[in-house]
Design goal:
The chain is of the alpha/beta class. The protein has helices at 44-54, 71-79, 90-99, 105-120, 129-132, 134-139, 142-158, 163-175, 200-221, 260-263, 265-270, 302-314, 316-339, 362-373, and strands spanning 2-3, 61-64, 82-87, 228-232, 245-250, 340-350, 353-355, 358-360, 376-384, 393-394, 400-401, 407-408, 412-419. An eight-stranded mixed beta sheet has the order 1-9-13-6-5-2-3-4, sandwiched between helices. The protein has a three-stranded antiparallel beta sheet with strand order 11-10-12, with no helix packed on it. The structure holds S-adenosylmethionine (SAM). S-adenosylmethionine binds at residues 36, 38-40, 66, 68-69, 71, 86-89, 92, 234-236, 251, 253, 260, 283-285.
Length: 423
Amino acid sequence: MLRIKNVQHFNGNIEVNDSWNFPESKELLMHKIHAYPAKFPAFLTPKIVSYLKENRAQINSIGDIFCGCGTSALESKLLGIDYLGYDINPVATLIAKAKSNVYSTKKIKELYEEIIKECNNGKFLTPNKILFHERIRYWFNEDNIVKLYRLQKGIYNVCPDGKYRVLFLTAFSNILKACSKWLTKSIKPQVDPNKIPLDPYLAFKRQIRFIIEANEEIKCIQPKNSIIKVKTQNILNIKPRKNKVDLVITSPPYVTSYEYADLHQLSTLWLGFVDDYKELRKGTIGSEYAKAEHETFLINNETSQTIVKELFKVDKGKSKSVTKYFYDLDKTVDKTYSLLNENGYAAFVIGNTSYKGVYIDNAKVLIESFMNKGFKNIEVTKRKISSKILTPYRDKTGKFSNNKKGEKVYSHEFIIIAKKPSR
Ligand SMILES: C[S@@+](CC[C@H](N)C(=O)[O-])C[C@H]1O[C@@H](n2cnc3c(N)ncnc32)[C@H](O)[C@@H]1O
């Protein structure tokens, strides 16, 4: 790790540290029970904890302010460390909750049989408003709408409120894209007119089989007892807490790359989190729709001001979104500080990018924010990204895309570790 004393001397050209490049192929199946964009590799949590412990840090609790689908939640559970995760996206927190529990395989099988029995007896045929929701009709054919409706009703009827219901809803959520007209693997909401959607009963059966296998794998590891809490909340609105954590490990959203609300619209609609998925764009950091005038950019962060000014010359709209992103990122550093115990650590994983020739040095912006906030012992390392990002290209608008004609973006990312000093 490279110790940073002066942010002006930092640039992204530091050497890659091979010890932070691990293949992701060995990840536990439980990490894969639901697709989620921009997950970080699972090994990072145990690796950062052991790195800090080697340096005599006490890590008895972990927080993740952008917990996404709960990669750090599951890894904290395996380490036997208490955990507090936040994410604004209710689909993310549903998955994170599902992943951080251990289940009785016998009970999963029994509940599954019950749900299918309920579906087959046909008593849920009565259409309700969801059957008529315009967006649902846009994405699904009539036959699949009825089957999905029955499956969902079955889950609610058979599983009482609690961890098994969360698990089955997660399975349900993960089959939605395959059962719809959504272009396979696309990170843009796009209809594939030639697609033959999967049968929901078949997809659900396979998904439950996969979950059972994942659960059996976890049971062999016998995770120690720890308290895992996951909350659906905008991190920018959290109030100071009495119970703080020793380590915040997180990866912030990328700038104007993924629209999480749009990407998860099938799940949010079916699970009834909102009537209009666009509602969930509000507050999401890095959303293209969040803009701020760069003239009113009040944060004291020279690196971000320079980037925003450069962007303004090539794309005014983009410079406003990036302005808002940097503004929010800076607030995130404040929130991290207030969530940490004295002598606690923040570990942020972030990638740099470029847009229309302007280098967007997110790592440097973050390091400057850490310094301004009073964090000490700031260290940084660079790692290669392996298969984490399925979509290493940006299209003309700056969004991630699978299209190889686009501009290639992230091949590396940075891990920045900083200490909150004692008073
Ligand atoms: C890069 S992803 C994190 C992925 C996570 N490390 C994982 O392995 O799944 C960034 C996350 O930030 C969340 N997010 C964006 N704006 C937020 C906000 N204002 N408050 C809390 N979470 C937010 C997104 O919903 C997304 O899940």
